[in-house]
Amino acid sequence: AHSIAGYARVTSRTLANMSQTTLLVQNCCEIEEQLAGPQDRDERLRDVGELLRRAERKHEETMDCLCSVDESISKLKKRIHRNENPRFLHYLVINRKQKVERLTEELLNLV
Known about the structure:
This protein has 111 residues and is mostly helical. It contains three helices and no strands.
């Protein structure tokens, strides 16, 4: 239950960042049109295209970051499960309970 709520928080933050980026791009386009005055149509299209490429790169970076966070969360969950439910040689791990607590803290900090 903790991890689902945490994932929802990470996803909502990412969506908020994406909507904020969209608003910034829209505001930037409006300001550029106001400041530019009479410009060549092709120049304006290039400027808008550049803004769009920057927004797309920012979106890709955000999605890459979200994917890496998801991978880290799944790895931590597996490690926690393996240490909470040991098999064979995992019983020999020293301070296993403390390790589970430490991994759970890391998971909560990540989320």
